[in-house]
Amino acid sequence: MLIPRYSLRTTLIGVTICAVFFLIAGEALRGHEWAVVITITVVSILGMFAVHASLYLLASYFGKIIGAPLSPARTNQGGMQTSSDKRFPPTLDDTPENS
């Protein structure tokens, strides 16, 4: 789940942050140097996240195409899990002796 507790409060906080950003961007268009610096910084950080996300998606897509093996996941007890969690709850066949 991307946003597990999405609510009206979360929406209002997001709208407020966007309103403040666009207020500063408007001041940047009027020629205030401090607002130009803040606007360029925020846009640069968002652009960096967009490039990072697109490269991750590209790498995972190519990984699926060539069939790269998935690395095992760590469990909360410190062990390694190599099988998927598609069968939940575990059956008797999932015991370590049967693996």
Explain what you see.
- The chain is mainly alpha-helical and about 100 residues long.
- The protein is about 55% helix and about 5% strand.
- The protein contains 2 helices and 2 strands.
- The chain has helices at about 10-30, 35-65, and strands spanning about 75, 80.
- It has a two-stranded antiparallel ribbon with strand order 1-2.
- The chain is elongated.
Q: Give the helices and strands as they follow along the chain.
A: HHEE
- Please compute the radius of gyration using only Cα atoms: 23 Å
**Beta-strand share of residues:** under 5%
Q: What spatial order of strands do you see in the largest sheet?
A: 1-2
Helical proportion?
55-70%
Structural shape? elongated
Number of helices: 2
Low-pLDDT runs: none
| Annotation, overall tally of beta strands | 2
Largest sheet: 2 strands, antiparallel
The structural class is mainly alpha
Average the pLDDT over all residues and give the rounded result.
82
Q: What is the multimeric organization of the chains shown?
A: single chain
Instruction: Report the end-to-end length measured between terminal Cα atoms.
Output: 30 Å
